[in-house]
Amino acid sequence: MSINSGAVATGSHRAASSDISQSFLFRSPHDGWLWADGLEDVSDRVRASTPADLAGQVQRLLAARQGTQQAPCLVGALPFQGMASARLFLPGRVIRDASSLPMALPHDLRWPAPRSTGRSLPAEEGYCARVAAALDEIAAGQYSKVVLARALTLEFDAPVPVAGMIAALAERYPQAFLFAVPQANRQGVFLGASPELLLRRRNGWVDSNPLAGSVPCHPQAAEDRAQAEALLASDKNRREHALVSERVADVLSGYCDQLSVPDEPSLIRTGTLWHLSTAIRGRLRDPSVSSVELAAALHPTPAVCGHPTGAARQAISRLEGFDRGLYAGMVGWCDHTGDGEWAVSLRCADLAGAFLTLYAGAGIVAGSDPVEELAETATKMRTVLGALGLTLRAEAA
């Protein structure tokens, strides 16, 4: 693996008087920025085991805030598995701004340099071995898909500025769901620029946009389009995508009396990858069902876990070798009416001073190639690294 650096982040944004590392930020391509500060940590007060219980606990917390705020809401992130690392907050102040980032970014901000090429967990050759093991288990019929991830930790020669990191991601990926969530005990920030909408609820209507099946973007337009068309025609990638879109549609059909699901996936381009995409929309049968309950019912989708869910979770615990924490979870907000928006926590990293830990995974199905899956994780990590002006190349041993 090699890392090259040498970029300058530039930009100009409206200033805000707050410690941004202790604020919650969420930018939606639909509604712009939501910035929350004065955060009351309620993570330990939300410990539900079912989506309905979770929604009930959240609504009780919000109801207790009625009268103290004009429009109380809950913000934060839920982890991939369990609730131990959940980060949920009731903000003292919420600012919405559809146009600009509510913070100041100095001009000509120079990033610190990485001290080494980083430490991958598992190591690259180990990741390929785990993919090969998963393919054996798929061939044996234990499950049909599993998403295997790895983590990469970089140390820099000085702390990486949180505000600069967030602003650089915002400028580089204008159509992404951008987020920043304070970690416990002021131990850094979980941040990222996700391409994937898990669940959006507005006035009794819900939207979800599962993504699965991908190829890297190409710098040359003709080659880029050829790769995208090949992805759309790929049997392996279409099977991987169908597992995700069909499950999302199945879950939402239990809540909706109208549900629109396209017959065929479409293509969507992010900063580094082409994805197969299915935009699903429905009308709630019961308008009191909140965005928290709906998102929790969908989570985790086969896009971040696998299929069937139980067997894929077991394989992840057995094969990955690290705790995902908030990676591959869900991040967003829910207001007192139940409206809200939640993105899948992808293209993300934990930033703590001079240490940056990135996360990325790849969906493994019959026909996957270990070296190609390793390369896919490296491509996904470039979302965060690119904002720092860094490049990454994965080499399997």
TrEMBL record:
GO terms for biological process: salicylic acid biosynthetic process. Keywords: Isomerase. Residues 124-380 form the Chorismate-utilising enzyme C-terminal domain. It catalyses: chorismate = isochorismate. It comes from the Bacteria. InterPro entries: ADC_synthase, Chorismate_C, IsoChor_synthase. Gene3D superfamilies: Anthranilate synthase. Its EC number is 5.4.4.2. It is an enzyme of class 5 (isomerase). GO terms for molecular function: isochorismate synthase activity. PANTHER family: ISOCHORISMATE SYNTHASE ENTC. Belongs to the isochorismate synthase family. This is isochorismate synthase.
